[in-house]
Amino acid sequence: KSMDSTLHYIHNDSDLSTNSSFSPEEERKSKVQDVVPQALLDQYLSMTDPSRAQTVDTEIAKHCAYSLPGVALTLGRQNWHCLKDTYETLASDMQWKVRRTLAFSIHELAVILGDQLTAGDLVPVFNGFLKDLDEVRIGVLKHLHDFLKLLHVDKRREYLYQLQEFLVTDNTRNWRFRAELAEQLILLLDLYSARDIYDYLRPLGFTLCSDKVSSVRWISYRLVSEMVKKLYMASTPTFVVDLMNELVEKFCRCHKWSGRQTFVFICQVKCLHLYSGG
Fold first, then answer.
1. Position 58 pLDDT exceeds 80
2. How far is CA 252 from the centre of its chain?
3. C-alpha angle with apex 36: 35 to 39, nearest 5 degrees?
4. CATH for 32-159?
5. What is the Cα–Cα distance from 108 to 144, expressed in whole angstroms?
6. Positive or negative: CA dihedral 127, 164, 198, 214
7. For residues 200 and 160, is the Cβ–Cβ distance under 8 A?
8. PANTHER family, per this entry (predicted)?
9. What does the H/E/C string look like for the chain?
10. Which residue in 112, 106, 180, 117 sits closest to 146, CA to CA?
11. Closest-CA residue to 217 (of 258, 164, 270, 275)
12. Residue 269 pLDDT > 90, yes or no?
């Protein structure tokens, strides 16, 4: 009952704006709330104090980051101003494990805060994680669809230009990164128009189909198959015709046997999907 009431509370209260020009006294008052004992919240917020990492636990900031979505859910979005500074401090922590923890949970925090606070306070942090180490980027990549679906359409389209950056990793042997990208692209097909799929997701799909690692290629075959399905169901038939022609030219008529085999596998995936009732 307590959890249900809290969820109802945070989803029905309007977003509150925050003022970054507080005096020290106003700053202290801005962190006052009446949901949990204030001393308990103050103790939690102090976990980002560098001196505590030296005297209490070197990973105390990581523990703080791990618990933040739960604290935000308990306090409700109307009290986000109590946590905002702490969240930004954690998001810029020098330890990549702290930033990685936040990256894996940013989509959950977005659900709690709502679209307005997400656009204002979380999107800048999300953009920073996209340019971080692979250990941090994988956190936002694994939940890319979960986060982008919460954004407005115009804001969501801005990330189409950045998807190809996921093909570049710190370690070229990190094939699981590309495999996760292929999995996420399958989910993203539902969020974008036929034009966007053809212009932005199609080139990524074709690139992944030629990956050196077979596990990445097999996921990519399903990705291209799903693209064909989505474009076939679109109101404009031009996209699916052009896509099919490109498949024939690039793979079916490829002078290498591996390319021709790719065409067969894509067709096989599609046939199995149709046979299963998809």
1. no
2. 34
3. 135
4. 1.25.10.10
5. 12
6. negative
7. yes
8. SERINE/THREONINE-PROTEIN PHOSPHATASE PP2A 65 KDA REGULATORY SUBUNIT, SERINE_THREONINE-PROTEIN PHOSPHATASE 4 REGULATORY SUBUNIT 1
9. CHHHHHHHHHHHCCCCCCCCCCCHHHHHHHCCCCCCCHHHHHHHHHHHCHHHHHHCCCCHHHHHHHHHHHHHHHHCHHHHHHCHHHHHHHHCCCCHHHHHHHHHHHHHHHHHHCHHHHHHHHHHHHHHHHCCCHHHHHHHHHCHHHHHCCCCHHHHHHHHHCHHHHHCCCCCCCHHHHHHHHHHHHHHCCCCCHHHHHHHHHHHHHHHHCCCCHHHHHHHHHHHHHHHHHHHCCCCCHHHHHHHHHHHHHHHCCCCHHHHHHHHHHHHHHHHHHHCCC
10. 106
11. 258
12. no
Residue 10: left if φ>0, alpha if ψ -120 to 50, beta else—which one? alpha
Question: Can you give the pTM of this predicted structure?
Answer: 0.81
Residue 25 pLDDT: 56
**Model confidence pLDDT, tens digit, residues 14-52:** 444 444 454 555 555 667 777 888 899 999 999 888 877
Residue given tokens 């180490």 in the structure block: 133
Instruction: Write the pLDDT tens digit of every residue in 249-267.
Output: 988 888 999 889 888 888 8
Q: Greater confidence, 17 or 67?
A: 67
190-219 mean pLDDT: 94
